[in-house]
Amino acid sequence: MTGLEVQHKLNQLLPIVFLTGHGDIGTSVDAMKAGALDFLTKPVCESLMLAAIDRALQRACIEWAKRSQRAEIEERLNHLTRREREVMALVLTGRLNKQVASDLGAAEKTIKIHRARVMEKMKARSIVELVRLAGRAGVHAADDD
């Protein structure tokens, strides 16, 4: 397997810093286009290598935090009932309780209850926060679930 083939396998897991003894411009361009954080050729200055590793660790921490946050939000979404998901999808479009009730053929009071449960389960204090949470999990107003 070449270094670029390994990169394609690992790219989703962690930031990649290439260190090679046989680097050329074409390979370095390919590596960077494929998502490498840095491309160093041997012999490399220790401070440059440590700086590249530091950038990679910082990027890895940021990406880990994003994945953790998304997983937490998805876990909250998994606790919603089918009806709560339907209500949330319509609420994300900006529809009022009365409109959601009409769309779903339910009483407005029932929609208020579902909406309150959505807010509670999603741990959102406002509709704006609910929209942000849903967006971080890849759920948008147009989604049915």
TrEMBL record:
GO terms for molecular function: DNA binding. Residues 1-57 form the Response regulatory domain. Pfam families: GerE, Response_reg. Keywords: DNA-binding, Transcription, Transcription regulation. Gene3D superfamilies: 3.40.50.2300, Winged helix-like DNA-binding domain superfamily/Winged helix DNA-binding domain (1.10.10.10). One of its GO terms (biological process) is phosphorelay signal transduction system. Residues 73-138 form the HTH luxR-type domain. The keyword Transcription regulation applies. The keyword Transcription applies. CDD domains: LuxR_C_like. SUPFAM superfamilies: C-terminal effector domain of the bipartite response regulators (SSF46894), CheY-like (SSF52172). This is Response regulator protein TmoT. It comes from Paraburkholderia domus.
